[in-house]
Amino acid sequence: MNDTNVDTTSERVRATRVLRSWGAVACLLAMSLPCTAQTASPGYPLHPGDKLIIGVYDDPKLLPQEITITPDGSITYPMVGELMAGGKTTAQVRAELEDKLKKFISEPIAIVLVTDVKGNVAYVVGQVNKPGQIVMNPTINVLQAISMSGGTNPYAKLDSIIVIRTGPNGVQRVLPFKYGQVASGKDLQQNVQLESGDVVVVP
Fold it and tell me: What angle do CA 123, 152, 179 make, to 5 degrees?
């Protein structure tokens, strides 16, 4: 058997192991997680407060366990220690876990699944019927956020709504939102997709 055939066979074995691992975790999730758990879409960037199921296929010492991303964006996992997860996708976290686990396990297959996206939140405050925190999966726009907050009350100044956004350097900026224009189909670029931590202020 030549090297090409050996490589192809090895990849097929690994692919089979991956498929079996996902099947096993799917069964575990079905049995152990509440029906209210929110799963994330592919490419979703992880946030502090999100919950993950992490495990290693075919390793009894590293069975799947639920881990919450800490406020600083990190997680802690046996043998690996602390790993930054905030802002990364599950695929990126899985690749980093496997790379670090190679020191202890031959060809590790890590399993990383999002089970709750409570860390991905925006806030709506002011003259709305249900002010507070909104969980986004993966994102919503300003108009949707206002709707999810029960709509505005009669005292709201609809053309003075703003979105306060904090950048990675801590600097805040204000994005104007004139409800009347957007509702009439004008200047729709104001209806931005919200980012985690955004605050919609309805004066």
Answer: 85
**Judgement on whether residues 14 and 76 belong to the same structural domain of the protein:** yes
What residues are paired with 114 via a beta bridge?
52
- Relative to beta strand 199-202, strand 121-126 is parallel
pLDDT tens-digit series, residues 3-52: 555 455 555 555 455 445 445 554 444 444 443 345 566 688 999 999 99
C-alpha triplet 124, 151, 184: angle, nearest 5°: 105
Q: What is the pLDDT of residues 183-197, one digit of tens each?
A: 999 999 999 999 999
Alpha-carbon distance of 192 to 164, in angstroms, equals 12
SS3 154: coil
Give the number of other Cβ atoms within 10 Å of residue 10's Cβ: 11
On whether both 18 and 56 belong to a single domain, the answer is: yes
Q: How many domains does the chain have?
A: 2
**Domain boundary residue, one of 84, 99, 116:** 116
Q: What is the pLDDT of residue 19?
A: 44
Structure tokens at 195: 């980012």
What is the total residue count of the chain? Answer: 203
pTM over 0.90: no
